[in-house]
Amino acid sequence: MKDTVKKWLEEKQVDMFLGYKMVHGHALPYCFQADRLDEVDDLVVSRERYSLEKMATHIAAVYPEMKIGMLARDCNQRALKVLDIWDQLKKDSVTTFNVNCCPSPLKNHGDCSYLEPSPVGPVKVELGIDNNMSVEHAEHLDQKERFAHWMYEFSKCIKCYGCRNICPVCFCKDCSLEHPELIRSGGALPTEVPLFHLVRAAHMAGRCIDCGLCEDACPMDIPLRLLYRKVGSSVSDLFGYRPGIDEGKSPFNLIGDAPTTEPRPI
Amino acid sequence: MEYKLVPSICSYCGCGCGVLFEVMDGQLVGTMPLKSHPVSQGKLCIKGWNLHEHVISEERLQTPLLKTNGALQEASWDASIQTTAERFKKIIAEHGPDSVAVLASAKVTNEENYLIQKFTRAVLGTNNVDHCARL
Asked: What topology does CATH give the domain B3-55?
């Protein structure tokens, strides 16, 4: 890995390489460059996942000609595909060095979606939603009970906007979650439940790549991934489109020749 | 082009969450949570997420403000400290040490806060010292 990255930098195949380096015992994202080639010896694959593609998007916004190399797991790959489709980070400007997903004792090659889930506490099981629940299981709960449980989860929200800020495929300049007619601005708490979360869920349709960073970043442990998985499964059932996996534009940014209103079974 | 991520600690309250500052060409452009931090475990509140906005804000105070003739005006550190010391001395001489109080800050270090309380108790001679992050 280190030799390849050095070669890329030396031969100017990439101008910079986003990887990880150990700093004070923490694996931190690090930008390796040709004028500091020795540092590539410190390149590591970290257990922690950062959205390197989001950093690449920030760099490309200022330096559009920059050729960016980056370490990529499966979730990074999916995010890059979506960012390319939405014209945020063109795929020609990014070269990836593909690495195994998060190290896990369970699998030699595990997609992070399959990593060993951590058990949830008894109060959350009683009142809220088990983060490890499958979409199918969640759909088969009694509707009234299901609503109460989701409302319990949503009402915990402290409106940190962490789910949006960390999301690799959230890039809009004008965010609906800051729209004064939808969501009260400033530190007004509690936030509009369930509107806040449902607005975000609706916007994740055709975009969410199921990387799980939102749920990782949520201080209140709201099962966001499950919510967005449900949205994703609806898009997949209705349009046969899986963001980050399937080629082509999302059904939500296509303007077709003739709009169809033909209903399809959900 | 220079791009680096600098680990730091959020200065807003006593929790001490780990943050990563995104620095491009010497300019602070973003804040994100430090995933491997033992305190915050990759989570932040809204204040932590927006640390960089306070640093680069145009409204940020860069000098002390002294109330002169009823209005706050920019002043040098020397003049501010001198005025504060004189006022403290005058008030304490007239009304005793318990007539003044000191409010410490979460945005300075633990050691500086220690000095503030030591100064208040040993120099000013009052126990009137409190802290904004007494959550």
From this structure: N-terminal domain of TfIIb (2.20.25)
CA distance A217 to chain B (A): 5
Question: pLDDT digits over A118-165, tens only?
Answer: 788 888 888 888 888 888 888 888 889 899 999 999 999 988 899 999
> Chain A within 8 Å of B15 (Cβ-Cβ)?
no
pTM, entire model: 0.81
Instruction: Give the chain B residue whose CA is nearest to the CA of A157.
Output: B45
Q: Where are the domains of chain B?
A: 3-55, 63-95, 97-135
Closest residue by Cα to residue B37 from B21, B15, B49, B19: B19
- Identify all chain B residues contacting A159, using CB atoms and an 8 Å cutoff: 46
- Quick check: B33 and A160 CB within 8 A? no
**Could you tell me which residues are beta bridge partners of residue B65?**
B74
The pair of structure tokens assigned to B73 is 């005006």
